[in-house]
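Async update (no meeting this week)

Hi team, since we skipped the sync, here's where things stand on the single-chain job. The sequence we agreed to prioritize is pasted below, unchanged from the tracker. I ran it this morning and attached the output directly underneath so nobody has to dig for it. Comments welcome in thread, and please keep replies under the output.
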Amino acid sequence: MAKVLDQNKSYTFSKYFDLPFSPEDILADLGCTLERTDREDLPYTRCELDWLPELAQSMRRRLKRVNTTTEQARREALIFPLIDRICDRLDCSINIEYTVNVSNWLKGSLDYYIPSPSNLLIIEAKQSDLTKGFTQLAVELIALDRWVESESPILYGAVSSGEIWRFGLYDRAAHHVVEYLPLHRVPQDVEFVTRTIMGILQGEAMADDAILS
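Output:
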C-alpha cells in the first residue's frame, strides 16, 4: 500500500519536484531507499585535460554575458556547453528531452541522458532548488533503471542549477539511491565536475569500493 503517492493518479517526473512529501517517503512508495552522504568517492578521471582552463574561462564569460534567471537560459548557457564539451572529447551521444514511459508513476522527459556504461542522467533543478531537484533526479534514475537494458550495476546522475552541481547514484540491485551532499560551484569547481562526469562516462572505478557498505 502506497504511503504518499495516490494509486489513482498519474505522476510525471516534474510533478515529483512539487510534491510536499519527504524524499524518503516518495522513494519508499517506489520500492527504494535513500542515503545521504558527505563522502566524495565518485568515479574521477585523472587523465591530462589541457583544455580545462579554456572551459573554465568560457563559463566565466557566459556568466558575465547571459542573464541566467530562466531555466532555459541556465540549460543552454551553463549546463549544455559543459557536458557538450565533455561528450565531444569522449565521442558520446547526448539525448536531450529523452522521453521515458515506464508506468503512471514513472514517466516524462529526461533533460540530458548520456548512454554509457553507467547511463549518466543530468537534470536542471527548477527554481535552482537542488534539494527538490534531487528528489526528481532520484525518481528519474529509478525510471531509467527499468527503461534501459544495461549490465551496469550502478546508474549515475547529477542535478544542477547551472552554477552549482550535486551528484547521486542508484544501486540497481539494492534499489538504493545515494545522494552526495557536497555542492560544487562552476566555474570554481569545474575541474571536479568535469573529471567526475568523465570518470562516470568512461566507467572508471569509484574512489572507494566500500561506498555502498
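Quick observations from my side:
The chain has a mean pLDDT of 93.
Helices lie at 13-18, 23-29, 52-65, 71-90, 130-147, 190-201.
Reply here if anything looks off.
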